[in-house]
Amino acid sequence: MNFIKPKIIISKCLEHDACRFDGQLINNKYIKKLKSFIDFTTVCPEVEIGMGIPRKPIRIIHDDDKIMLRQSETNIDFSTDMNNFSKDYLSKIKQIDGFILKSASPSCGISSTKVFQRKHPAPIGKGPGLFAAEIIKIFPNHPKEEEKRLNNALLREHFFTAIFTIADFRSVKSFDSLYKYHAKHKYLFMSYNQTLMRKMGKIAANDYSLSIEEVKNLYYESLLKIFIKKSRYKANINTQMHVMGYFKKDLTPKEKKLFLEKLESYRNKKTPISGINNMLYSWIVRFENEYLMNQSFFNPFPEELIEEDVSRFL
Fold first, then answer.
1. Residue ranges with strand state E in 241-302
2. How confident is the model over 182-212, as pLDDT tens digits?
3. What is the three-class DSSP state of 41?
4. Per-residue pLDDT at 296 exceeds 70
C-alpha cells in the first residue's frame, strides 16, 4: 500500500540537530525510523529568538496573571520574544498533519513542562511551553505528541494512525475521491467514533449541494476530531464483529468458535488486537473481498513502523 507522507513539525533537537540548551542531540529510535516516511519541518524556537547553543536554562514562571519565560541566572524575560515568534511562525503554516515536540521543554513541552512561581524553587505543576501553547491554540485538534510518549506502543500507534490517515486526505480532490476516501477508512473511523463516522458520511453525501471545497472543510474538521482520543477495545470489537459478518455464511462452526474465543481473549486483554485482525485478514484474502482488503483498519500506516510488542493491546 502506498502512503502519502505526513507533514510534521518537529522540535529540531529530536534526531535532527544538536541545539538543545546543553548542546545535545536527542536520540529517539522511533523518530529516526520515521525519517523515511515523514516530511519533517524542524524548528527550535529558543534558537530562533536568538538564544545561543549551549545556553542558560529557562523556566516557565507564573507570576500573578502573567506567564513568563525567564532565564533565572540572567533574570532575562524571553516571553515577548517567544510569543511573537510563535504567533508569526505558526500563522504562516498552511498545511500540516501533526507535531512531535520535545517533552518538558519550556518552549516545546505539550503538557510536561514544569511550572514555577518566582519566589518558590520547587515546581507548582506542569503545563505547556510557550511555543506549544500557541500550537494548542491555533491547531487544537491536530495530532500532537511528545517524543517520550512515543515509547508507549499504544500512544505511538494511535499517533501514527492519525497522521497517516489525515495526510491521506490530501488525495481528496473531488466528490468521487471523497467517497472513496470515506469508504477506505470506514472501519477505521468506526473503531474510533461511530457517531462522527456517520456525520462524516452525511457530509460526504452533500445533501445541501455545497461546493467541493466547503464539503472538504466540513469533513476535515470532523476528521481531526475523530482522532482526539485513541480507539477503545469495545469499539474495536464492534468493528471486528462487523467485518466477521461478511464471512458468517462461509466459515465453518469451528472457525466461528475460534474467532469468538480469540475475541473474548482480546476483550480480557490476553490477546493483542493484531491477533484478531490477522485472523480476519486471512479470511479477507481467502474469500477475495476487495472492499475489505483496501480497508485502512488493517493497515493504517506503513508496516515498517510496526514494533512487535506484547503491550500492543487496545
1. none
2. 999 999 999 999 999 999 999 999 999 999 9
3. strand
4. yes
Q: Which residue, among 55, 70, 53, has the nearest Cα to 19 in the 3D structure?
A: 53
Report the pLDDT value the prediction gives residue 312, as an integer from 0 to 100: 45
Residues 232-258, mean pLDDT to the nearest whole number: 94
Q: Collect all residues with Cβ–Cβ distance below 8 Å to 11 and sequence separation of at least 6.
A: 42, 43, 44, 100, 101, 102, 105, 108, 147
Judge residue 76's burial from the number of C-beta atoms within 10 Å of its C-beta, 0-12 exposed, 13-18 middle, 19 or more buried. middle
190 within 8 A of 235, measured Cβ to Cβ = yes
Choose among 124, 128, 134, 83: nearest CA to 109. 128
- Rounded-to-integer distance, Cα 280 and Cα 268, Å: 19
Three-state DSSP class for residue 10: strand
Segment 162-188 mean pLDDT: 97
Better-predicted residue by pLDDT, 29 or 272 = 29
| Cα–Cα distance for residue pair 70/67, rounded to 1 Å | 9
Q: Which helix (H) or strand (E) holds 144?
A: strand 144-146
By CB neighbour count within 10 A (0-12 exposed, 13-18 middle, 19+ buried), where does 44 fall?
Answer: buried
Residue/partner pairs of 261-264 with CB below 8 Å, 24 or more apart = 263/237
Q: Which of 274, 263, 272, 275 is nearest to 310 (CA)?
A: 272
User: What gap in Å lies between CA 23 and CA 107, rounded to an integer?
Assistant: 16
For residue 197, what is its C-alpha cell? 463516522
pTM score > 0.90 for this model? yes
Query: What CA–CA distance (Å, rounded) separates 310 from 291?
Result: 30
